[in-house]
Amino acid sequence: MKPRCVILGVTASIAAYKACDIVRRLREAGCDVRVVMTPEASELIRPLVFRVLSGNQVYQGLFDSPETWNVEHVSLAEEASLVLIAPATANCIAKISAGICDDMLTCVVAATKSPVLLCPAMNENMYRNRITQENIKRLKSLGYGFIEPQTGRLACGKVGTGCLADVDVIVKKALKAL
Description:
Blueprint: E1 5-10, H1 18-28, E2 32-37, H2 47-54, H3 72-79, E3 82-88, H4 90-98, H5 104-111, E4 116-120, H6 124-128, H7 130-141, E5 145-146, E6 150-153, E7 159-163, H8 167-177
Parallel strand pairs: 1-2, 1-3, 3-4, 4-5
Antiparallel strand pairs: 6-7
Helix pairs in contact: 1-2, 1-8, 3-5, 4-7
């Protein structure tokens, strides 16, 4: 039997380093993990790290030369049993809510028929912003799943809500969604 395929979207939150543990844990659970990084995320963590952890090519740009010829964002979307975005920035959430497809990750989300699970991670002011909350509300009404952020020390040094949910919680809910 073919393993369940999880497309893990990684966006430019400082919490991107936790995605490494998510990859490892999903693989231990028998999942085939394909990582799609936004260009900005690769400024925080090198794609090579995810390639080693996942055992798969890491996808970044829409116009990168594919290792095999196919329309990658469509083929990834079709392979997906689940699209998990952890961390999901306010920018990524806003683009998905507005239907903007200007990078590999947002194109995969637009093309998939599989469940999409977003894990917000951002500064508390950004998370509590009315526009961000409306985008989350809209996506929830459209059937997108969310794993809410937790309260803790944020990158700015303050304590507030906006920390990526615990890796155990994310992996557990992702496996349940499968």
